[in-house]
Write a structure and sequence with these properties.
By secondary structure, this protein is an all-beta fold. The protein has a single domain, classed as YVTN repeat-like/Quinoprotein amine dehydrogenase (Methylamine Dehydrogenase, Chain H, 7 Propeller). Helix content is about 0%, strand content about 55%. The chain has a 4-stranded antiparallel sheet with strand order 6-7-8-9, with no helix packed on it. Strands 10-11-12-13 form a 4-stranded antiparallel sheet, with no helix packed on it. Strands 14-15-16-17 form a 4-stranded antiparallel sheet, with no helix packed on it. The termini are far apart. The mean pLDDT is about 85.
């Protein structure tokens, strides 16, 4: 699976992923504003994209269309990293030093589980799930912290 973006367009294996609109505009680009960040599950079950306006979308590649628009606001306007579990059922979003973890529901909506502000020197630029309950957070200097659920999400050194 090859995932990339150019401007407001999202491509999966060199095919544009579009949102189905009205009959007047049967297909619209992935976003109206430039895409800022994307993340996907290893198995390709979910793709998460966020644009410069803070609009976050969850995509279901098996259906080749938008699964559910999640947020449309300023909270994720400055997103710096996205991470998705292997099965696509959980994802994490970083904005600077703050990381939020979400579960996706069957209907395509998402539920925020927890968020934490990390004691790193610089913004988080990479998020990777080691498993469903562990997120490895890396800043732009290469410093790493682990965020684990035990039973609540907390920072582990």
């Amino acid at each position: 699976m090859i995932l990339r973006f150019e401007g407001n367009q999202l491509f999966l294996d060199n095919e544009e992923v579009t949102e189905y609109g009205s009959t007047a505009r049967p297909q619209t680009p992935a976003h109206y504003q430039k895409i800022r960040c994307i993340g996907s599950s290893a198995k390709g079950a979910r793709i998460i994209s966020v644009d410069e306006g803070g609009q976050m979308k969850i995509w279901d590649p098996a259906r080749d269309k938008l699964s559910r628009r999640v947020w449309n606001g300023n909270e994720y306007k400055d997103v710096t990293a996205l991470g998705v579990t292997e099965d696509g059922k959980r994802f994490a979003v970083a904005v600077g030093l703050t990381v939020a973890v979400y579960d996706t529901n069957r209907d395509g909506t998402a539920e925020k589980l927890e968020h934490a502000t990390l004691p790193l020197r610089d913004k988080v630029t990479f998020l990777q799930f080691a498993n469903d309950d562990t997120v490895i957070c890396t800043d732009s200097n290469g410093s790493k912290l682990t965020l684990e659920r035990d039973p609540a999400w907390k920072i582990k050194n």
